[in-house]
Amino acid sequence: MTMGAYVRVHGREAAVWSGGLGLLTVQVLRNLALPPGYWRLVAREIDAIGVRSLAVAVTAAVFTGMVLALQAAVNMERFGAENYVGAVVALSILRELGPVLTAILVGGKVASGITAELGAMKETEQIDALRAIGVNYIQKLIVPRFLAALLVFPLLTVLADAIGLVGGMVIAVWERHVDPYVYWNNMLYWVVLRDFLTGLGKSFFFAGIVTLIGCYNGLSTMGGTEGLGRATTGTVVQVTMAVIIADFFLTKLFLSLFW
Q1: Which residues make Cβ contacts (< 8 Å) with residue 88, sequence separation at least 6?
Q2: Whole-number Å distance between alpha carbons of 207 and 43
Q3: Are 243 and 209 in contact (CB under 8 A)?
Q4: What is the mean pLDDT of the chain?
Q5: What is the end-to-end Cα distance of the chain in Å, rounded?
Q6: Which of 152, 138, 190 minimizes the C-alpha distance to 46?
Q7: Where residue 181 falls among pLDDT bands split at 50, 70, 90?
Q8: Any idea which of 9-13, 24-28, 118-122, 208-212 has the lowest mean pLDDT?
Q9: Do the Cβ atoms of 144 and 38 come closer than 8 Å?
Q10: CB neighbour list of residue 225: distance below 8 Å, 6 or more residues apart
Q11: Nearest of 150, 153, 142, 152 to residue 25 by alpha carbon
């Protein structure tokens, strides 16, 4: 296959994927009003997405805060600014690392699981059966996951922020001998509410991106177990790339609005 043909084929596939994802997003937004009996499905997804992802979020957050504090302290010592480690750690975690790492790590786990589950249902014709009996499969299978993610991801981000700041303090105080009062005082002086809200706002967008990609890839799975494996692997890659790309544009948007 020539380079031109390769670009055309994959460009067409990307266009089809993007269009399908956009159509699914519209369908989800039109079906957000759930029947009362479906809210138990939202509660079940909150447990699956949030509670079972706590270990991943907490582990990533604490070590991110620790390594960030260690690197910042070592480099800032050259300029006699080691006391500002707390502010650097806080701004980095609250604005970027907290929401982005949570979305990538938890999102990759969650989205791949959604793809595998929905893909298996599609291959065994369970989704076709729901359509045949008149069940709105978007409301039953997609919207509860979407709503649960919109609630869980911000909470996980707040938890990751807090754990990351504590992990940074542990390293700054014990390893680099920074006074804990100075660490927190400088952090509270330089960090403002909009720094926290910027990262929290990103987490809502990331939640939607992660859930919709996982659901779309599951619903569009073809080729049996081999196709399901490809779809699950592709979901992890697509979620990671989508979060990183969206983070850039969201950062530009929030900077233009609040700074």
Answers
A1: 68, 72, 76
A2: 16
A3: yes
A4: 88
A5: 49
A6: 152
A7: confident
A8: 9-13
A9: yes
A10: 123
A11: 142
Q: pTM (2 decimals)?
A: 0.90
Secondary structure class of 220 (helix, strand, coil): coil
What token pair was written down for 221?
């799975």
Tokens read off for 35: 């029947």
Let me know the angle formed at the C-alpha of 24 by 19 and 29, rounded to the nearest 5 degrees.
Answer: 130
pLDDT grade, residue 7 (50/70/90)?
Answer: very low
Contact assessment for residue 94 and residue 191, using Cβ atoms and an 8 Å cutoff:
yes
Q: Which two tokens stand for residue 184?
A: 């927190």
Contact 111, 208 (CB under 8 A): no
**8 A C-beta contact, residue 53 and residue 156:** yes
- Among 146, 48, 71, 60, CA closest to 98: 60
pLDDT above 50 for 96: yes
Q: How confident is the model at residue 10 (pLDDT cuts 50, 70, 90)?
A: low
Residue 189, amino acid = Y
